[in-house]
Amino acid sequence: MSPLAGLSLVWAADGVRPEGTTLWLDRKAAAGHDSLSLLVFRGEAPFAIEGAALEGATIAIRSFPHLDEAWALYLLTCKRRGEAIPAAWESMCRYAGDVRQGLWPDRVEPEHAVQAVYLALAQHHLLEDPPRREAFLDDALAFCAIVGKKLAAGARLYDDDLVAGEARLERFVALLAQDHKLYDEDLGRSLGFLAELPGSMSGGVARTLPLLCIQRPIATQFKLWARTDVRAPGGRGYPLLLVEQDRKMIVLSADPASRAKVGLLAKALGERESRARAAQGKEAATWYDGKDHGGTLAAAPREGTALSFEEVVECLEKELRLRPIRKGSGRGRIVAAGALAAAALAGAIGLGWFLHTQDKPAAVADARPAAASDDGTTEANVPAKEGRPRGSKGDPLPAAEVISLIAKNDGPRSIEPYALVAGVCGYEGEHALHSPCRDARAMRDLLITKYGYKRENIIYLVDQPAPGDKADGVPTAEGLKLAVEKFRARFGDKEDSSFLFYYSGHGGYIKGARQDYGVLQPAEFFGKLANLPSSHKGWDMQDLVSDIRKGVPSKHVMLLLDCCYSGWAVGAKGDDELETHLGSLWKERAEVVLTAGSKGQRAWEDDPDERAWAWGGHSAMTAFILEGLAVSAAGTATADANQDHVVTDEELAKFVKERVPRSVEDKKEAKQTPTLFRFDANLPKSGQFLFVPKP
Question: Which one, 7, 67, 282, 481, has least CB within 10 Å?
Answer without folding.
Answer: 282
